[in-house]
Amino acid sequence: MWNSTGRVLVAGAGGFIGGHLVGELRRLGATIRAVDSKSYEDWYQRFDDVECIVSDLRSADNCTAVSQDMSIVFNFASDMGGMGYIEMHRVNCMRSVLINTHLLDAAANAGAHCYFFSSSACVYNGALQENPVTPGLREEDAYPALPEDGYGWEKLFSERMCRHYLDELGLQVRVARYHNVYGPFGTWDGGREKAPAAICRKVAQAKLSGNYEIEIWGDGQQGRSFMYIDDCIDGSLRLAQSGYSDPINIGSSRLISINELVDIVETIAGVRLKRRYKPDAPQGVRGRTSDNSRVRAELGWEPSISLEEGLERTYSWIFDQVAIGAPDRGQLTRR
């Protein structure tokens, strides 16, 4: 399909999910324009044979410029990170609403036939996530609204913007609510990393240093589900090609605790570590996982890569970065 649908814009292409999407679209033969605000040298994945543009998409003029002649627009551009970042940088997270607002408008004006928005499970009502062992969140559980403050509100508002552009202007929209995506070629240090990457890094550092301890934020009982990046890209492309326009979960329905996540990474690394808990660290909600009933019914899709397999790949990549003393930017250049 992708080599016959016209040109594809990927906003946020220098980031984690956006970089992997560009790589897969490139493999499928799509004609791609990749855009990110970061210097090209700082993109997680670089593509010598793809049109790559450095542009700040908080600007309406820049969104207009990059959207010209685009048939499909994927918006992964936002200022975000794990709980250690979004709980302390709510202003920055909220400013991402400028990107989606201007890019939606630019896509509609350019005549794009599909606009894909990467939303988040952070839109869900926090009152439903107060127990570590919690039922999967259904799409309707976003209302009544009580999302994660800052980042979650921005995502929920942007979802509504997408809905109104569909209803009033006829722009076809696709909205994916992602649940904890992880994998190689993403943030693993520096404060923006999410739990799987942070734990892989800490275990690798412990093994390499011989200091067999690990700091765990909270009590380790927080419940989460985690989806490997390849499954995320597969689910996203299925959604983009579907006729489904309401927000939909793209995530795993397997709920595990942070302690269990550490257990898995320790087994992969072949070590056992003393655990030091930090109860005053950012923790987010107590329990969150995905109800995949709707995505199975509408797209015939669910993740296929086990957490153990995905973490093994992720740990191997992060271990290599830690071992060579790499900064938090292990790039892959594709030619």
Calculate the mean pLDDT score and round it.
93
Low-confidence stretches: none
Instruction: Using the alpha-carbon principal axes, give the shape.
Output: globular
Instruction: Report the structural category.
Output: alpha/beta
Sheet with most strands? 7 strands, parallel
Please list the strands of the largest sheet in the order they lie side by side.
Answer: 4-2-1-5-6-7-12
CATH class of the domain at 2-180 and 228-253 and 292-304: Alpha Beta
Q: What is the chain-wise order of helices and strands? A: EHEEEHEHHHEHEEHEEEHEEHEHHE
Q: Based on the coordinates given, report the CATH architecture of the domain at 2-180 and 228-253 and 292-304.
A: 3-Layer(aba) Sandwich
- Helix fraction? 25-40%
How many distinct beta strands? Answer: 15
Percent in strands: 15-25%
Total number of helices: 11
Which fold name corresponds to the CATH topology of the domain at 2-180 and 228-253 and 292-304?
Rossmann fold
CA radius of gyration is 19 Å
CA(first)-CA(last) distance: 22 Å
CATH superfamily of the domain at 2-180 and 228-253 and 292-304: NAD(P)-binding Rossmann-like Domain
Provide key terms for this protein.
335 residues; alpha/beta; Rossmann fold; 7-stranded parallel β-sheet; two-stranded parallel sheet; 11 helices; 15 strands
Describe what you observe in this structure.
- The protein is α/β, with parallel strands linked by helices and 335 residues long.
- It has a domain at 2-180 and 228-253 and 292-304: 3-Layer(aba) Sandwich (Rossmann fold), CATH 3.40.50.720.
- The protein has helices at residues 16-27, 60-67, 83-86, 90-95, 97-110, 151-169, 195-209, 229-241, 258-269, 293-299, 307-323; strands at 7-11, 31-36, 45-47, 51-54, 70-75, 114-120, 173-178, 181-182, 213-217, 223-224, 227-228, 248-250, 256-257, 274-278, 332-334.
- The chain has a 7-stranded parallel beta sheet, sandwiched between helices. The chain has a two-stranded parallel ribbon with strand order 3-15.
- Helix 5 runs parallel beside helix 6 (151-169) and helix 9 packs across helix 11 (307-323).
